[in-house]
Amino acid sequence: MPDTILDVQGLETIFKTPDGTIHAVNGVSFGLKEGETLGVVGESGCGKSVTMLSVLGLIPNPPGKVIAGSAKFAGRDLLKMSNDEIRQVRGAQISMIFQDPMTSLNPVLTIGRQLEEPLMLHLGMTKKQASDRAAELLSMVGIPNAKDRLKDYPHQYSGGMRQRVMIAMALSCNPQILIADEPTTALDVTIQAQIMDLVKRLRQELGMAVIWITHDLGVVAGLAQRVIVMYGGFIIEEALVNELYANPTHPYTIGLLGSLPRLDAKERTRLYSIEGLPPVLYQKPKACPFAPRCKWAMERCWKENPALEPVAPEHRVACWVDTKTGRPRS
């Protein structure tokens, strides 16, 4: 059984705005095992990215602040580290690929300069060693004529190639964990497939653990071993990927899966849409945050927020209703 490499417990993050305090992440707890790929899914604004940015100490303060929780990595709490200490972890042991490759690279520095910097900073390489390693990394992520392309600037690369550069940069110091924050959002479908295949291959070769953040459950199916579903700053369902697709239990997960076109459908069926809007989190929800949009909602859902409870081996859900019967969960 692989060891847990990252253990997050009770994470809470807020943002202070002129209109009030937004409770973006509300007591999130999860673990990541060595070498596994964990999918984190949910619609925009549900807290996926903020959770991972909080773990890495990348929430801008002000307006944001982590107010509770712990994130244990290699026996140390990332949330209690000083700026200098967490800087030694970021990039070297835990790397992150950000959402938009168009804006993640510095437009006035060459690709080579941007790849070499973390190698010299974290691994103490000389300029020559870092340059050789940077060319190796570009070759590894499938960029031809790597040595010559180090002299180019970001605008000379296509969107897909820029995302490959971001992956090369994230992998440069052989991290134990790679966090990919919707890395294929701005790319066309064929490039998306190439990037996903690349990450899968590199995970197998390097043995690192991956957290893949997305709003697309179709992407997760071919990539992750385990999935957590977030809504309103909470984890509302967690399961092994096959179990989640075969037996979705939370009304929100059922809605997400129902909104996906299916290639194996025997007859035409209308795609499901989830009525209503996501919650505005100016106050921490005391009731189930999904109740206003849920067709199964009953009286208890409007008064009390359910905790994550096991419903099958390695399958937990936060819901008062048994969605198969429509009755209260016993």
List the helices and strands and how they pair.
Layout: E1 4-17, E2 20-33, E3 37-41, H1 48-55, E4 64-73, E5 76-77, H2 83-89, E6 94-97, H3 101-104, H4 111-123, H5 127-140, H6 146-149, H7 159-171, E7 177-181, H8 189-206, E8 209-214, H9 217-221, E9 226-231, E10 234-240, H10 241-246, H11 251-258, E11 309-312, E12 315-317, E13 321-322, E14 327-328
Walkthrough of the structure:
A hairpin with a 2-residue loop joins strand 9 (226-231) and strand 10. The protein contains eleven helices and 14 strands. The protein has 330 residues and is an alpha/beta fold.
Shape: globular
Category from helices, strands and their pairing: alpha/beta
- Low-confidence sequence ranges: none
The biggest beta sheet reads: 8 strands, mixed
Q: Report, as a whole number of angstroms, the end-to-end distance.
A: 31 Å
Number of separate helices: 11
**What is the typical, i.e. mean, pLDDT?**
88
Binned strand content:
25-35%
Radius of gyration from CA coordinates: 21 Å
